[in-house]
Write a structure and sequence with these properties.
Strand order of the largest sheet: 1-2-3-4
Largest sheet: 4 strands, mixed
Structural class: alpha+beta
Number of strands: 4
Number of helices: 3
Helix content: 25-40%
Distance between the termini: 54 Å
Order of helices and strands: HEHEEEH
Shape: flat
Amino acid sequence: MKKIKNIILIMLFTLAFGCGYTPIIEIKKTNIYIAELDFSGDRRLNNHILNNLKKYQLNKEGSKIYKLYIASDFKKISTNEDDSGNPKNYNLEVKLNVNILSEDGNSISKIFAKTASFDVKNKKIEEKENENQYLKYISQVLSEEIIFYLNLK
């Protein structure tokens, strides 16, 4: 009985860890070089995106070269209010209009957008910190989507 349990346990570990899973995008395997990044729009959002894309500004031999022009738009919209008119929930809407210029001269415009919702906090400083965390997370997700899109090209 113990032998059967050991065999089943070994098979489960083999299946779980030997499934061949690899992340879709690994920085080691990306063949992208962002030669130029220009931003317009919301400064906070642009700084987060710049920090996320900096690692792709290192030129590697044989990389595809891109120039990105990113126009960002950030809106904080009250979605639900109490009886006295005070907001209870907010939606953060982030939209990036990315113009991509490749090394062969092709120009493509692509829009990336994300939305997040969060509750109003009692203290405004907690609410602002919460908003900053959501904004940072959304910018990270959008940066990954941009790199994924460039990887497919």
